[in-house]
Amino acid sequence: MGRIKYKKKKPTGERELHLKLWSEKKKHYCQNCDKDLGDDPNPAYFSHIIPKSKEPKLRLDPDNFKIICLPCHQIYEFGTLDQIRKFNLTDEQKNTSNRITI
Ligand SMILES: [Zn+2]
Q1: Quick one: which of 4, 15, 22, 67 has the fewest CB in 10 Å?
Q2: Which residues surround ligand 1, an ion (CB under 5 A)?
Q3: What is the distance in A from the centroid of ligand 1 to the CA of 75?
Q4: How far is the C-alpha of 45 from the C-alpha of 13, rounded, in Å?
Q5: How many angstroms is it from 27 CA to the middle of ligand 1?
Q6: What is the structure's pLDDT at 100?
Q7: Structure pTM?
Q8: Average pLDDT in the 3-11 region?
Q9: Of 58-67, 71-80, 89-98, where does mean pLDDT reach its minimum?
Q10: DSSP letters spanning 23-53
Q11: Is the separation of the CB atoms in 51 and 57 below 8 Å?
Q12: How far is the CA of 53 from the centre of ligand 1 (A)?
């Protein structure tokens, strides 16, 4: 695994959580399209299921993360409702996330 430098920001604990989630698995695949993500825990791979703006207390909840590839993250953050619906969220997550409401 290479060493990567990240921009210094206020420590939120989020990065540490990313690395913990990453290290829990040997192989990393996009949870949406199964693309192989390699060994580099790019911060952009970590997507909040429920946006932190909506539920700040879930910002560091390991269950509130999906590890997804960059194109999927792009769709998840900025895609159409139909595209976002295809993400396999649990019903509970769908109910809590304002992204999924019709
Ligand atoms: Zn993907």
Answers
A1: 4
A2: 30, 32-33, 35, 69, 72
A3: 9
A4: 16
A5: 14
A6: 47
A7: 0.71
A8: 68
A9: 89-98
A10: HT-SS-B-TTT--B-TT---GGGEEESS-TT
A11: no
A12: 23
